[in-house]
Design a protein that fits this description.
By secondary structure, the protein is mostly helical. It has one domain. The chain is 70% helix and 2% strand. The strands form two sheets. A two-stranded antiparallel sheet has the order 1-2. A hairpin with a 4-residue loop joins strand 1 and strand 2. Helix 5 crosses helix 8 and helix 6 runs parallel beside helix 17. The longest helix has 33 residues.
Length: 430
């Protein structure tokens, strides 16, 4: 596989921005390690007690400023969508054709995860496992899927948002930011229901930064560092002078920066991205070498599989260790020995995840069968909305959670919506 990655690396077009791919690979890798680190499963001699590092050691909330890198992924998505839309325009590919290609590559890897957990949850139920246990583990496994639910909607809106960027530039970004700020203001004045719309306004704002990057309108390194400083200053004001919590993900407080998203994530994205973009030039020079770039190519060839399955692998490993007597899980979370054991924990999980990624990653490289009919744009949008509603419901409640039959309905929505959108049948490896 390494030789294949090197061959692909050597054939990379000279005009490709390799830093985009590098940031995608790096950001997802950080998310995976962060999820593995934040879990504090503890075996007390009788059962496994799930835990959360931010609750066990509150000082670690600071670490989320580095490990919450979803803003970077959305910015990278904005850049990639801009490139893709420009290419489609040159080739005369319409919205329906462009959207069909994007949806296929996003949805296909997800379906196997949902099918696998549906089968597992059903088996556990028949075996007599308590519903609460099924709900807890499946909900944990579904955590990565929330991103795809909102990102698919952002992709659907990408041609419209990119047209707004081309027509109005930063004004279109400031409008989105203003709406997000207004929604947050309502949230903190007890009008909370509009806050769920910030899944759009916050992430569309962050996604817009990718357009600015693509157009080269973010300036030179010193300017980027200045923007980064502004983002940091805004973030600190919002947290230390405002009502927002410190943790950027999984907050133990009553208010969360992520559920639903708050403007703190936009400030964090500007802070992180300004720093990262200021070093783009030297990193791109380094990525011009074959081996570093081949490593990025290899990681990106399985990046969605790694992202979707990393928590499932951890759950299976913890279950296996528990059945073998809990060896290695009896270290008190947050203790000095626990911290020293984290590198081993991450390496073991990485070693278990790698063969899973090798087995399932070909699903990321599928395309529509040649000559297959592309569904109408409206049909794809309707199907995608159904699909995303099902995904988000499963991400929130898992299998067995919420009202009775909710998981069955959500699961059905995913596949019915996928069928309507035309992303289920007739695939061919490319």
């Amino acid at each position: 596989m390494w030789e294949q990655a090197k061959k692909l690396a050597e054939n990379t077009p000279a005009d490709r921005n390799r830093y985009v791919d590098f940031l995608r690979a790096a950001s997802i890798s950080v998310v995976v390690i962060g999820h593995w680190l934040i879990a504090t499963a503890y075996f007390n001699g009788d059962s496994v007690i799930p835990g959360h590092l931010l609750e066990v050691q509150p000082w670690t909330q600071w670490l989320t400023w580095a490990f919450q890198v979803m803003p970077i992924f959305f910015i990278v998505g904005g850049y990639a969508n801009a490139v893709s839309l420009e290419s489609a325009k040159r080739k005369g590919v319409g919205y329906a054709g462009w959207l069909a290609a994007r949806l296929t590559r996003l949805v296909t890897p997800l379906l196997i995860l949902l099918l696998g957990w549906a089968a597992l949850a059903t088996g556990m139920r028949l075996y007599g496992v308590e519903r609460e246990v099924i709900q807890m583990v499946s909900q944990a496994a579904m955590i990565p899927t929330w991103f795809l639910a909102i990102y698919i909607m952002i992709v659907i809106l990408a041609p419209l948002s990119y047209r707004a960027w081309e027509s109005y530039g930063f004004t279109s970004l400031f409008v989105l930011v203003a709406i997000a700020v207004a929604v947050d203001a309502m949230f903190f004045t007890s009008i909370k229901w509009p806050s769920w719309t910030n899944y759009f306004w916050v992430w569309l704002s962050v996604h817009h930064l990718g357009y600015a990057w693509r157009d080269g309108r973010l300036g030179k390194p010193l300017q980027l560092l200045f923007y980064s400083a502004l983002g940091l200053a805004a973030l600190m004001l919002l947290i230390f002078k405002g009502p927002y919590p410190l943790a950027m993900v999984g907050s133990p407080d009553d208010i969360s920066n992520t559920l639903p998203p708050k403007i703190t994530l936009l400030a964090l994205g500007v802070f992180q991205f300004g720093l990262l973009l200021s070093i783009e030039a030297p990193v791109r020079r380094w990525l011009s070498k074959t081996n570093p770039w081949a490593a990025v190519v290899l990681i990106n060839s399985m990046i969605m599989t790694v992202y979707l399955w990393h928590i499932t692998v951890m759950i299976f490993f913890v279950a296996m260790v528990y059945l073998l007597g809990g060896y290695g899980l009896g270290i008190e979370p947050g203790s000095e020995l626990w911290w020293w054991s984290r590198p081993v924990w991450i390496l073991v999980l990485g070693a278990l995840l790698f063969p899973v990624a090798l087995l399932l990653s070909p699903l990321e490289r599928v395309g529509r069968a040649e000559g297959s009919k592309i569904p109408a744009a409206v049909q794809q949008i309707v199907g995608s909305v159904m699909l995303c509603f099902g995904i988000s419901t499963l991400a929130m409640f898992g299998y067995g959670g919420g009202p009775r039959w909710l998981d069955v309905i959500a699961f059905a929505l995913v596949f019915i919506g996928g069928g309507i959108a035309g992303v289920l049948p007739r695939f061919k490896k490319v």
